Each structure stands twice: as structure tokens, then as C-alpha cells.
Amino acid sequence: MTVTGISKWFGTKVAVSDMSCSFGPGITGLLGPNGAGKTTLLRMVTGLMRPSEGEIRVFGQDPSSDPSVYARVGFVPEDDAVYSYLSARQLVRYAADLSGTDASADTVDAALDRVNMLDAADRPIGQYSKGMRQRAKVAAALVNDPELLVLDEPLNGADPAQRAVLISTFHELAAAGRTLLVSSHVLSEVERMTDRVIAMLDGKLAAAGGIRAIRSAMTHIPHRVRIETDDPRRLATGLIDTPDVVGLRFEDGGVEVETSNLSTLGTTLPRLADEIGVHITRFEPADASLESVFRHLLSIRR
Amino acid sequence: MTAFRAIFVATVQQLSDRRRVLGFGVMALAPTLLLLALSRTGQFDGLDTDLGMLAVAPFLSMIVPITAVILGGAAFGDERRDKTLSFLVLRPIRRVDVVAAKTAGAAAVSSAFAVFGSLALVGAYAVVGGDFTILPALAVGATVVATIYSAVFVLVGSVFARSTLVGVIYVLFVEGVMVEEVSRLHPVSLWRQGLGATMDLMPGTFPARALLGPLRGTVPSIENALLLTAGVVAVTIALGTVLLRRTDSV
Lengths: 302, 250
Description:
By secondary structure, chain A is α/β, with parallel strands linked by helices. Chain A has helices spanning about 40-45, 90-100, 105-115, 130-140, 160-175, 185-195, 210-215, 230-240, 260-275, 290-300, and strands at about 1-10, 15-20, 25-30, 55, 75, 150, 180-185, 195-200, 205-210, 225-230, 245-250, 255-260, 280-285. Chain A has two domains: about 1-210, Rossmann fold (3-Layer(aba) Sandwich); about 220-300, Alpha-Beta Plaits. In chain A, the strands form three sheets. Chain A has a six-stranded mixed beta sheet, with helices on both faces. In chain A, strands 11-12-10-13 form a four-stranded antiparallel beta sheet, covered by helices on one side. A three-stranded antiparallel beta sheet of chain A has the order 2-1-4, with helices on one face. The radius of gyration of chain A is 23 Å and the shape is elongated. Chain B has one domain. Chain B is built from ten helices and no strands. Chain B has helices at about 5-15, 20-40, 50-80, 85-90, 95-125, 135-160, 165-180, 190-200, 210-215, 220-245. In chain B, helix 2 runs parallel beside helix 5, helix 3 packs antiparallel against helix 5 (about 95-125) and helix 6 packs across helix 7. In chain B, about 50% of the residues are buried. The interface of A and B includes residues 48, 86 and 95 of A.
């Protein structure tokens, strides 16, 4: 899926502005605060909305003008977008019929089984919890074995066990070479699914790529590193005079260091430890988590 | 199952929930209750009299149209309200199939209520001293009305969230007051297509056929009624397809 220079505006409000990116096999997380334009972007890439400007290609075709491409695409919409009068089994069979794929009992059961829905498959969806409705929607999206799966907040309302089932299903699909684009505002869950993200802020592409690579590229924001040692006080004293160290904080069993140059610290630290006679037991970035990266992106916006 | 058939079946299921079956079922029986009430006045001579037409006319001009307006509007209206339209349109199927199947489903359910109402009305007529011979004529006429209003309001419901309000205003004020006053518009009045079909199909011996002569200028023949109905259905499906293709489906 490739997106080239797409924008979408509603009257004077710009929802998505000049976005370009591409998605390949594996899971890509689409991140952004409410109103960032994630849902608008997902609706455009699936062909539900036409971009005001720019071009979208899914398997080389424009999805809004060539419906044949949908035989290879699955979509899980956000909200409670379900047919409450159908059972999960009927919904999955309906999806199979609409996709022109095999709607036999075996195929339908296989899709339901993937999301652990076989036991409740014959109850009306209107009686399901929100998490069960999400799983029913995912089962319906999987029945045609799509090569591209677009999921808008698929974990909303799911309890921890249901989330584990869904995340495991997404990992299996990714391992099988499928392309998954997952939108979520729950960063810890995106982090459990993938380290490849696209972050949106105010309708614009804020960052794209691996989480650590994005963090490394933010050179103007000091890096935080957690160092565990047998003598934090002596290490801190030695680090105070080290170039590029801009802050220090004692933590239980170690020191958290703020540095403007991570690679310099990486080469200086072993020499310093040797000189002052302290033993380093752990050295790890403290702000390369998705949440930290995202917080930095938000601070840039402000 | 083909996509068309799958959407048709799902639409029938969507529009036939218990609440709607109960509500529209009771509504379809209203003219029958009116007929039974009239028969107790002692002045009732049958459906072929002016008093009898008091029961048939509102059935064709109000009960069936309002039922079809609400069901037609709900065919896409429910999908928009429940945000399920993406489930239909993100499929490798032509949009014309989606609109045609939705229209067929809405028309089928509306027609089922229309036929049920016709059966009850003619059954009551038979009980109070008439016969069943008018049943095919009334059932066909009611089906024509149900189909034409369903088709129009499937289209309206795909555009406006308040299609029921638009439909009720259309039935009560545009058709019931404005068109009523302008006789030149009668041949294109939607419910009169059903009246024309009913009148034309009435048994030759049915006394109300005598009304056909004076009404001929304002009520279409069955051929014209069927042609206009087919034309309206084709145009609404075509317009609905264009709208579903061109507009953002969310």
C-alpha cells in the first residue's frame, strides 16, 4: 500500500495534510492523539473516503475506483459498527458471501476459531460485550484470508485475555507475510504488537519507522539512560564533568543520565568506569519506549 | 450465495425485527378495523361503496406508503446510523448490486406488510358479507405502492438521516394535499399507481369498477402504473449507485 501526498479537508478544516508513506508485510502501528487524523487516513486508504488531493494505491490499484482490490483486503472499523441482529456466525458467513469467497461451515468456523469465538458464535451480536464484538469483527475481516488487514482501534473494549488473543492472532498473520495496519491510541499495546510505527500529529506525518530509530533521530531532545552500578555516587561524580552530560538523577541502584549525545556517552562510560573503579552492571535507554517517543513528539508540537 | 442474494437476505432480516413486525403489522390492520367499525354502522354495503372506499383509500394512500417510506429509509439509514456501511462497500462487488439488493429487500418487506394488510382487509370484507374476488387486485395495487415508495425512500435514506420525516411530509402534505389539489399531477402521484392497478384488476362484476370511467383521467392504467414503477425503481437504483460511488461512504 502506498500513499503519496494525500490531503483531506472538510470545509476549512484540514484533517490530513500532505501525507506520504508506504506499508509492507508485517504490522505497522498508526499512532496519534484524538483528532490527529488516524481514522481519516484509514478511511482514505481503504477507499471509504476520497482524498481531496494525492494518490493511494493498494496492490497497484485505486481502491475507490476498483472494487476488485477488496478481495485481498480486510477492514475492521472502529466503534460498535456491527449488525446487532446477526450472530457472529451469520456475520462471518455474510462477509464471506460479500467477498466472493468460500462460505462453507468449515471456513466460517476456522475464522471464528482464530479469535476464540466458536462457543458464542450463535448468539446475536447485540448481546455481546464490546470485546466480543471486536473479535466478531476481526473474524469477519479474516474470513477471506486478506493479504492486507486494516484495523481501526481493534483492541478497544477488549479485556486483557481478549487482547492477548487478538494480539497473538495479529502476530500469526504478520508471520505469515500479511500486511497489517493497526490504529491505536493505547501505546503499550502497539508496542506489544510491533516496533514499526507511523505517528500522526495534527493531520501530518510526525514520524515513521522503528521506535528506536525515531528516538535516535530526535537529536535536539536529550537522551535519558539508566545505568546500574555498584557505586552510583562515585559514578555520578565522575559523570558530572563528562562532555554532553546535561543532567543526573539518582535511582535505586543506579543513576539516570541525561545526555545530548548518546554515542559519546557510550564510548566515554567504560573508560570512566575503569578510571574511577566502579562496576557497571546495566546500561539501557530510559526513553526509547514508544510512550516516551510519543511524548517527545507531542512536546515538539507544543 | 451471491453477494446480491446475501445483501437481500440480510436486508430482509434487518427490516423484519420483532418491533417492526409488530408495529407495521398493527398498522396494516388499521383499515380492516375501520372496515369492521363501518360495517357496524348499518349503512355499509361493501368495499364497492363510498363507505367501503373509506377503508381502501387510506390503506393505499397512507398505510402502505408510510410503511414503505420508513422501511425504505431504514435500508441504508440503519447502516449509516450503525456505521456498518463499510462492511458492504469494502467488498469486491459492484455498488449497483448493493443498491439493487437493498432496494429489493426493502420492497419485499414492505410488500409483505402490504399483502398482509390486503388479506386482512379483504378477509374482513368477506366476513361482513362480501367476497374474496378483489384480493388479487388490492394485493397487486398495494405491492405496486410498496415497491415504488420503497425504491424512492431507499435513495432518500441513503442521503438524509431524517428520511422518515421527509417521507411522512411527502405522503401527508405533498401527495395528500398539494397533488390532491392539482389533478394534472394525479397520474404521476405515487400511491395512485397502486390505485390504478387495483381498479384495472378488479373483477368485471365488481361494482366499484364503475368508478374507473370518471377516474380514468386521473388514475393511471395498470400498464402505465407498472411502467412508471419500473422506471422509478431503475432511476433510484442508478442514482443511489452514483451517490454510493461518488460520496464518502462514512
